[in-house]
């Protein structure tokens, strides 16, 4: 397995932390709650979404033959998107006002439904998260009627409870229709505002939706959206930086040239327009990297606080450097984080606790870190050694890969799955485990093995048992009507191979 990509102990620590956050009870946002959005209501939806995308990368690249952890954790994250804490922010945002449209004299009545129009900063993420799940697992879970049900429970205002009922098919169709209605110039977030970064998620959601359902939404949107992008000047030709936003009614572009805007847009645009992002990245690197490593961006956060989005610049640009394959920048930024952001291990989970101490010291080091960066962006960067999202969207699993054997029932507290894949040429299933916080005896299952065949199980090259229906041999057992199981000592790192016998 030496040529297969492997997760490190730090990688697994980040993944366990994501699993911990995703598994918290509804309404428990402990360790979350980024305030970079500056709306006083929190911005957890971005943490949920970016953690789900990180898991998609892990699933696709590192552990295609081990699915239960990433799949269940994604489902927990998607489920949290239906909580009122997340989507009810739209009630106020839908009303607009001079903040988003200088020509709007009065606030609109607005509307509660978070899906029916605009709000791409929410429904674009919901689309991408759910379509990613379907593209990987083909369960149909989110394509069933009512899969996305938003319950408004009138208690202090309103005319009574209301349910807004959708599924993945509805969301994809609505998003596509809004691209068409906008002349492919982008779906609005708040009324009158188009953000380039938020539209990346909608495009990628349509890509995965097309792969799962055979539609042509993304195939229509991508070339026309890119043409509008160039026509409107969403990326500055001189600087290579992306705009922050556009006012639609006034047709006014607001440039940015910031690491958060360039990073966020570039990470995900790279998945559908790799050559374009690669062509402008060197200029963005020249603009941002030295300042980030010298604490200058942290200084701006501390002393100016405008925009508060500067808080996520470090994480966004680190994740961009990772996606474009800039190993030197990625490693330098991750090293900075490990020196300054107090990496903390708790029961096998690794995270960076939030710190609001943004002022850099005399050496240009700051301990300030926002939780979106800490919980999602830095793990995303560490786990992505280049082209992670490009691969996820352009090299989808085939039906044969989904039908291949895979491992299951692995207790993450006992062992972390560093790599898991099926080699169709060698007819062998590979698994690498690293000891977890409660390392010891472990029993794992294997699913979708051919019951008419027999298999040998090896640990670090040495045979530890054979699998055949109705028999037990060494560490391996395959009872009639049950999944085959293997019992091992996971107290030390080891690699396992389950190979078909001739």
Give a structural overview:
It is a single chain. The chain has about 500 residues and is α+β, with helices and mostly antiparallel strands. The protein folds into two domains: about 15-95 and about 105-395, Glycosyltransferase (Alpha/alpha barrel); about 410-500, Immunoglobulin-like (Sandwich), CATH 2.60.40. Helix content is about 40%, strand content about 15%. The protein has helices at about 10-20, 45-60, 70-80, 85, 90-95, 120-135, 170-180, 195-215, 215-230, 260-270, 275-295, 295-305, 315-325, 325-340, 370-385, 390-395, 400-405, and strands spanning about 150, 160-165, 195, 245, 250-255, 345, 350, 405-410, 415-425, 430-435, 440-445, 455-460, 460-465, 470-475, 475-480, 485-490, 495-500. The strands form five sheets. It has a five-stranded antiparallel β-sheet, with no helix packed on it. A five-stranded antiparallel β-sheet has the order 9-10-17-12-13, with no helix packed on it. A hairpin with a 6-residue loop joins β15 (about 475-480) and β16 (about 485-490). α6 packs across α7 (about 170-180) and α11 packs across α13. The two termini are about 20 Å apart. The relative contact order is 0.12. The model has no long low-confidence stretch (mean pLDDT about 95).
């Amino acid at each position: 397995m030496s040529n297969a990509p492997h997760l490190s102990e730090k990688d697994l620590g980040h993944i366990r932390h994501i699993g911990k956050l995703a598994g918290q009870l509804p309404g428990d946002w402990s360790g979350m709650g980024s305030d970079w959005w500056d709306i006083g209501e929190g911005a957890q939806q971005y943490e949920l979404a970016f953690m789900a995308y990180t898991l998609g990368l892990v699933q696709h690249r590192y552990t295609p033959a081990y699915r239960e952890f990433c799949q269940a954790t994604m489902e927990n994250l998607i489920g949290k998107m239906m909580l009122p804490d997340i989507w009810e922010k739209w009630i106020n945002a839908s009303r607009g006002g001079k903040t988003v449209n200088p020509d709007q004299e009065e606030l609109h009545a607005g509307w509660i439904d978070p899906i029916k129009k605009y709000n791409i900063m929410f429904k674009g993420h919901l689309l991408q998260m759910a379509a990613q799940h379907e593209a990987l697992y083909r369960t149909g879970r989110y394509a069933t009627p009512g899969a996305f049900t938003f319950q408004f429970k009138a208690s202090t205002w309103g005319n009574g409870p209301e349910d807004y009922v959708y599924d993945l098919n509805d969301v994809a169709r609505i998003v596509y229709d809004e691209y068409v209605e906008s002349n492919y110039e982008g779906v609005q977030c708040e009324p009158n505002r188009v953000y380039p970064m938020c539209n990346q998620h909608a495009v990628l959601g349509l890509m995965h939706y097309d792969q799962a359902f055979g539609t042509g939404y993304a195939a229509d949107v991508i070339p026309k959206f890119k043409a509008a992008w160039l026509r409107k000047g969403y990326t500055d030709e001189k600087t290579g930086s992306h705009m922050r936003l556009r006012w639609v009614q006034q047709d006014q572009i607001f440039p940015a040239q910031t690491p958060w805007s360039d990073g966020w847009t570039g990470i995900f645009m790279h998945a559908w327009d790799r050559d374009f992002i690669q062509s402008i990245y060197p200029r963005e690197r020249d603009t941002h990297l030295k300042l980030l490593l010298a604490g200058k961006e942290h200084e701006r956060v501390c002393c100016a606080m405008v925009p508060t989005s500067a808080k996520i610049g470090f994480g966004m640009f680190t994740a961009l450097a990772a996606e474009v394959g800039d190993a030197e920048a990625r490693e330098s930024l991750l090293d900075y984080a490990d020196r300054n952001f107090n990496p903390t291990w708790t029961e096998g989970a690794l995270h960076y606790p939030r710190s609001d101490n943004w002022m850099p010291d005399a050496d240009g080091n700051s301990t300030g870190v926002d939780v979106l960066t800490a919980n999602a962006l830095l793990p995303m960067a560490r786990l992505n050694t280049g082209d992670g999202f490009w691969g996820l969207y352009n090299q989808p699993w085939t039906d044969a890969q989904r039908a291949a054997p895979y491992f299951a029932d692995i207790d993450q507290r006992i062992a972390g799955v560093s790599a898991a894949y099926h080699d169709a040429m060698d007819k062998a299933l590979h698994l690498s485990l690293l000891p977890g916080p409660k390392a010891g005896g472990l029993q794992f299952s294997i699913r979708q093995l051919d019951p008419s065949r027999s298999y040998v199980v090896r640990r670090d090259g040495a045979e530890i048992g054979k699998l055949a229906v109705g028999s037990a041999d060494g560490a391996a057992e395959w009872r009639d009507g049950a999944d085959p199981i293997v019992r091992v000592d996971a107290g030390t790192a080891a690699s396992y191979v389950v190979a078909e016998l001739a």
